[in-house]
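Incident log, support desk, overnight shift.

02:14 A customer reports that sequence design results differ from what the structure should imply. Their input is reproduced verbatim below. On-call engineer (initials T.W.) acknowledged and began investigating.
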């Protein structure tokens, strides 16, 4: 005699589907991480160049090109009380200027000289750093900018020593 037992129909368990979903998420995260690993590294920094305009001499005019995240930097030795005249021309108007005091403290940051230029009295003696870079929004768009900068250093004659 055979007993017939009735087995209920088998319903697939939801656990394998969940496991498959977890694997798909893990795989997507790994693919994203692998994609980020191929990100482009920042460009190599350009070396700062020494600039030596003669005090009370003619305007020094320089031309160059700035790329995103790769500013052009000049080192300028001056005295406290010197007056620096800067003129910056870039057709796209996407460049900014930064001037750092000898200790590295920024005295101008993000300045955009107008058509008549910019005049700045230097408060300390030593080597100042002048940096021209592409503004943040333009850098994110990958803009490159050709520019011309004019610069003069004016110095008052030393006062005669008094007795």
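02:41 Re-run completed on a clean worker. Output:
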């Amino acid at each position: 005699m055979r007993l017939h037992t009735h087995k209920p129909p088998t319903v697939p368990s939801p656990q394998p589907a969940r496991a498959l979903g977890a694997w798909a998420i893990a795989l997507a995260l790994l693919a994203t991480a692998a994609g980020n690993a191929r990100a482009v590294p920042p460009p190599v920094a350009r070396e700062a160049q020494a600039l030596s305009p003669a005090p009370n001499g003619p305007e020094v005019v320089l031309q160059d090109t700035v790329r995103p995240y790769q500013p052009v930097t000049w080192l300028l030795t001056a005295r406290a009380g010197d007056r620096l005249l800067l003129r910056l021309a870039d057709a796209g108007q996407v460049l900014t200027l930064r001037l750092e005091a000898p200790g590295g403290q920024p005295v101008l940051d993000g300045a955009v000289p107008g058509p008549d230029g910019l005049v700045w009295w230097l408060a300390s003696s030593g080597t100042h750093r002048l940096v021209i870079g592409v503004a943040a929004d333009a850098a994110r768009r990958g803009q490159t900018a050709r520019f011309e900068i004019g610069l003069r250093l004016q110095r008052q004659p030393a006062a005669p020593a008094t007795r």
